[in-house]
Amino acid sequence: MEIPEGYSVVKEGEAQILMQTSNTVFFNKAQVNNRDMSIAVLRTFIEKRKEEHEEMLNKRKKKHEKKPVGEDTTVSDAISKEERQAESAESQQDKVKCEGEKEVDVDVAVNDGKKSSSWKRTGDIQPPVVLEALAASGLRALRYAREVEGIAKVIALDIEQASVEACRKNIEFNGPMVCSKVEANQADARVYMLTHPKEFDVVDIDPYGSPSTFLDSAVQSVSDGGILMCTATDMAVLCGTSAEVCYSKYGSYPVKGKYCHEMALRILLASIESHANRYKRYIVPVLSVHMDFYIRVFVRIFTSAGEIKNAPLKLSYVYQCVGCDSFHLQTLGRVVTKNNSVKHYPGFGPTVPQECADCGKRFNMGGPIWSAPMHDQDWVLSILENVKSMRERYPAYEKILAVLTTISEELHDVPLFVSLHNLCATLKCTSPSAVMFRSAVLNAGYRISGSHVNPLGLKSDAPMEVIWDIMRCWVKNHPIKAQPPDHPGSVILSKEPKIQANFSRAVASLSKAQVKKVKRFLPNPEKNWGPKVRAGRQITSKHVSIYGPNVLNGDENGGDPVETNNEEPSAKRQKADNNGVVTQS
């Protein structure tokens, strides 16, 4: 196909798109990491659906084999009869009239907390239907259609006419196979998802900024057992710079700490869970990732009125000491089991006194956050295996391999982490090596791992008093200068350790990836690798820090020179030299 004038071709994976030299339609090549990770998860999701479906059929078959079968009835006939009965039951589900739409079946089946997917109650498994709610150029939808086998259809939405037209051009540009699979529509994603409840097996939300306004409709549009992929790029809000804004958008209050990016992930998960619970649905996270300048979560959504009663058990408040690095979690709820009855009660609290037991300072309180595991280890290993087996099909192979490898070695049942450098900064002491500190924790009988969020982060199930005892033992062997008596470090060191730390090297002090010298934290592949200007805004010389000096020469996407701001400098940016000539500062 001939390339129109004023356009350039951008190739990523197996897809190609036509990009205008102006900033009419949003595109950021740094999101290749995001798109590659999504493709890897989507491939694994399709495989898992098939495995779950086969497992369900095998259980059904074994169930009928145990029952006596009549002389003229075979096992296969019995299975077919049950399938017909299931289909008949489904046909009698409640129906709801949507305004201006035809009747839509609403799944009202509740399975008492069991993860039952709508497609699992029928005899056949259908190829998944994918909704990309905010398509822009359509590159993500094109890559899904071209690179992921077994997809029935990809629906690409955008509210901007320019984006929809660009998406349709790109669909046509990628050939007849893509034309048969990808459909571009202009619509408000929120309204579209609300009017298509439980119709999509995969819903992908990747907005410019916060996804908060899309979550309520998104959790309703995903089918039972389907997967929701959600990105958030408003990291300043989620990490506590604008904590009050975070509460208004996500319903959680962040606290500042080295773990702020992991807390951002857990705030987003808690928000999605809250929206899902309103419709008797709940989430099961399979992968939660912080990469580059954003976070992205992959969660499966199920329906169960019984299971949502356990939601408070998965949420916690965070108490963060303002003087040292001690933090504590308090769950919102608890359960009491007596004989066969299970009752739900509010959680006991508070878990901390008014003043920190380690340094005597006050606590900041944040949350609620998702405190249950934010990854599924089986899924993580499957995704990692898929990525390794298809290396040539992932443009960002090295990056996503590094992230997935680090995630696979995390302690998934330990929320948040401590920073070794921060611990030492509080005490004003030299830092032990990570291997020595990890060995001391392991020798004390606790577990410890790294974190994919921060190369200096250490996740451990050891209580904070044990962490500080280890540091007290370290300072005894490596004395420091005296600090003011009211300094948090002085208060911590004034107490005698209750345990004697053993810093001799433990066998498990290095992870398997570290032993094999697998790269886990990679630098950016090029300069200016980060967020870009919102579509529709003029790119000027003030955006050099985002796009690089090429923005002045028009080399971005290989186009004409970008207009620069030629206005007169303001008075605040003018100064006079020794000869009285005004120049720009």
From TrEMBL:
GO terms for molecular function: metal ion binding; tRNA (guanine(26)-N2)-dimethyltransferase activity; tRNA binding. It comes from the Eukaryota. Residues 79-100 have a biased composition (Basic and acidic residues). Pfam families: TRM. GO terms for cellular component: nucleus. InterPro entries: SAM-dependent_MTases_sf (IPR029063), Trm1 (IPR002905), tRNA_met_Trm1_C (IPR042296). Gene3D superfamilies: N2,N2-dimethylguanosine tRNA methyltransferase, C-terminal domain (3.30.56.70), Vaccinia Virus protein VP39 (3.40.50.150). Residues 56-100, 547-585 are annotated as: Disordered. Its EC number is 2.1.1.216. The keyword RNA-binding applies. It catalyses: guanosine(26) in tRNA + 2 S-adenosyl-L-methionine = N(2)-dimethylguanosine(26) in tRNA + 2 S-adenosyl-L-homocysteine + 2 H(+). Coiled coil: none annotated. One of its GO terms (biological process) is tRNA N2-guanine methylation. It is an enzyme of class 2 (transferase). Keywords: Metal-binding, Methyltransferase, RNA-binding, S-adenosyl-L-methionine, Transferase, tRNA processing, tRNA-binding, Zinc. Belongs to the class I-like SAM-binding methyltransferase superfamily. Trm1 family. Dimethylates a single guanine residue at position 26 of most tRNAs using S-adenosyl-L-methionine as donor of the methyl groups. This is tRNA (guanine(26)-N(2))-dimethyltransferase. It comes from Rhynchospora breviuscula.
